[in-house]
Amino acid sequence: MGREGRRRGPLVAGVVIIAIAMAAVGLYWFQPWKLWQDETVREALPTTAPDAGAQAPSSSAPEGPRTVAQGNLISHEHETTGTVKLIRLPDGTHTVRLEGLETSNGPDLRVWLTDAPVKEGVAGWRVFDDGKYVSLGKLKGNKGDQNYAVPAGVDPSGFGSVTIWCDRFDVSFGAARLA
């Protein structure tokens, strides 16, 4: 083996190591296997139990969960369908409910309550982190019915949309205008 062959060996090994490291980082970052993994969630509509020591509710108090706003999901980066409901529970708290959700699975998906307008097409993919938003938590599954509590102290009337947001790539998979 000549000099050239001896120099080429470590160079090839270095290139192979770098390629393997880049492939590992790419796989971690994009998580392509999630495109073939569906997670279905079937949560019931939340209810609240009255406090044992609480007085009977007045006739003006809601007797059960009440939908105060809703909208249909439109697709953005990934095909997304379903209904979003903002529900007021008997104790005065609010929950965002996704019903009949169908979307792609992906890395780091979140449910956000936002003040951004819902726009069709590519123009709507990245608008939701431009203004005010509240993360309601990680998406529990890419299919089914699921509930996300609105944190105490957050007035949902200041928000007009919900998005399934990919935090890793700063893009909306789908969104709904609440009306």
Q: Which strand order do you get reading across the main beta sheet? A: 1-8-5-4-2
Instruction: Give the helix level as a range of percent.
Output: 10-25%
Give the end-to-end Cα distance, rounded to a whole number of Å. 76 Å
Order of helices and strands: HEEEEEEEEEE
Given as residue ranges, the uncertain stretches (5+ residues, pLDDT < 50) are 49-57
Which assembly state applies to the chains in this document? single chain
**Average pLDDT number:** 86
Any idea what the radius of gyration is?
A: 23 Å
Q: What's the story with the biggest beta sheet?
A: 5 strands, mixed
How many distinct beta strands?
10
Net shape: elongated
Strand proportion, as a percent range, falls in 25-35%
Return the structural class.
Answer: alpha+beta
What is the number of helices?
A: 1
Write the layout of secondary structure elements.
Layout: H1 3-30, E1 40-42, E2 66-72, E3 74-75, E4 81-88, E5 94-102, E6 109-114, E7 133-138, E8 143-149, E9 161-166, E10 171-177
Parallel strand pairs: 1-8
Antiparallel strand pairs: 2-4, 3-10, 4-5, 5-8, 6-7, 6-9, 9-10
Q: What report would you give on this structure?
A:
The protein is an alpha+beta fold and 179 residues long. It contains one helix and ten strands. The chain has one helix at 3-30, and strands spanning 40-42, 66-72, 74-75, 81-88, 94-102, 109-114, 133-138, 143-149, 161-166, 171-177. The strands form two sheets. Strands 1-8-5-4-2 form a five-stranded mixed sheet, with no helix packed on it. Strands 3-10-9-6-7 form a five-stranded antiparallel sheet, with no helix packed on it. The longest helix is centred in the first third of the chain and has 28 residues, at 3-30. The protein is elongated and about 85 Å long.
